[in-house]
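Q: Sequence in, structure out?
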Amino acid sequence: MHTPRHTLTNFESALKALRSDVLTMAHLARRELEEAAKGLFERDEEACQTVIADDEEVDLFEIQIDRKGVDIIMRYQPVATDLRHVIASMKISINVERVADQAVNIARRARKLNRHPALPEIDSLKPMVAFTLEMFDDAFKAFEEGDLDIARKLKSRDKELDRMNDTLADQFVQHMQRDPKQLPGYLHLLLVARALERIGDQCTNIAEDAVYAFTAEDIRHQVQKIPHEPKE
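A: Exactly. Output:
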């Protein structure tokens, strides 16, 4: 059956608008994460407050994207690649909202840390923050540009982020044991590292949805096959 050109054009515009909303939402979430890091490392109370205040805008984008996605499916009944891009956009918005939530968690921890003398160990979180931001950028490069090579590599990079979190957690626990008076501060640092690790999980989810959108391949639970040992 022939699809009227004006209907096709309207669908393409609606899909483009949906993807644009996801990218705008991602920009807001990334900005929140940057501001949370600024609040943490520069002891900037205003930056922390900005993150907390701006989180509502990200939440509203998630609601808007969900509604637009449902409307596109009901109105145009897309199939194959088009349908996958709509579904992926809706799923990715959920993960972006969770990234923003973790940025808020970091900002709140930073506010509590800023009420006390600075712990020098806070700088040990800087490489983890930079690594997390790189993962976030690459996840959205995969979504926006269809760079599936980057998308497929994010899972292994997430494991590296997990290792960074484990290393820092061990260090902070050791500091707690040596200096119990600073236990609350080190606990906040430990929870900041955990929040960054969870953002890595969301970045991986975004990359997996990008692969699904462009190829229909589900790579969420792929496991590496272990070759059988040769019989003697």
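The two ends are 62 Å apart (CA to CA).
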